[in-house]
Specification:
alpha+beta, five-stranded antiparallel beta sheet, about 200 residues, rod-shaped, about 50% helix
Length: about 200
């Protein structure tokens, strides 16, 4: 956004992304005069599309950036990923002006770079989410294979200890309790290790 503002000698620039349903637009990045935007500090907020285009030129993919002050001259270039238009890169100028063909070409090139950056970011987020799901599945398998078996064995040992206690077999009951305590320590260590591993994966 800042580079586009500088190259086209504008007062402000914004990268806006269309919602998946095509009905709204989200401000992804902006640069320049805060007053050039309707809500300059609401990065991440969604606004409706279809607002009347400001003065100047707008892209053929929309009606201009709905986040820009309508009194500003404006030129927008679409962000394309394949055949899909995912957003726009818009430059605004406070004074009335006409953006030249060369400026339009430069903005289109910067829009292509922005589209690549957005797509890369989305792919990285998808990879992160897949990694989290895979780690959760691994944790579930480990808990089923180890912790569930340990808990089942502890249940059996506790019933055995109760039966021995009912006939006053104190010595054998103490042995059962010691073994249960050792198993509980092992299970506790396994759970802590699994939780730490999950946290590390989520934070990456």
């Amino acid at each position: 956004a800042e580079r586009a503002r500088e190259v086209l000698r504008g007062d402000a620039a914004a990268v806006s992304l269309f919602d998946s349903n095509g009905q709204g637009v989200t401000l992804a990045a902006h640069a320049g005069r805060p007053e050039a935007f309707r809500s300059p500090h609401l990065a991440g907020a969604s606004f409706p599309r279809g607002i009347t285009a400001p003065q100047g030129q707008a892209s053929g993919d929309g009606n201009g950036c709905p986040l820009a002050d309508p009194s500003y001259s404006q030129h927008c270039a679409p962000l394309h990923v394949g055949s899909d238009c995912i957003g726009e890169l818009c430059v605004s100028a406070a004074a009335p002006r006409h953006f030249s063909d060369e400026e339009q070409h430069l903005l289109s090139g910067l829009a292509d770079l922005a589209a690549i950056a957005v797509q890369k970011s989305r792919l990285m987020e998808q990879e992160r989410q897949v990694a989290v799901l895979e780690e959760r599945e691994r944790l579930a398998r480990e808990m089923h294979d180890s912790l569930a078996q340990v808990l089942g064995y502890l249940h059996l040992k506790s019933e055995t200890a109760l039966r021995r206690l009912s006939v006053n077999d104190i010595t054998r009951t103490e042995d059962e309790l010691r073994e249960m305590a050792a198993l509980a320590r092992v299970a506790y260590a396994d759970v802590r290790e699994a939780i730490l591993g999950l946290r590390e994966t989520v934070s990456q």
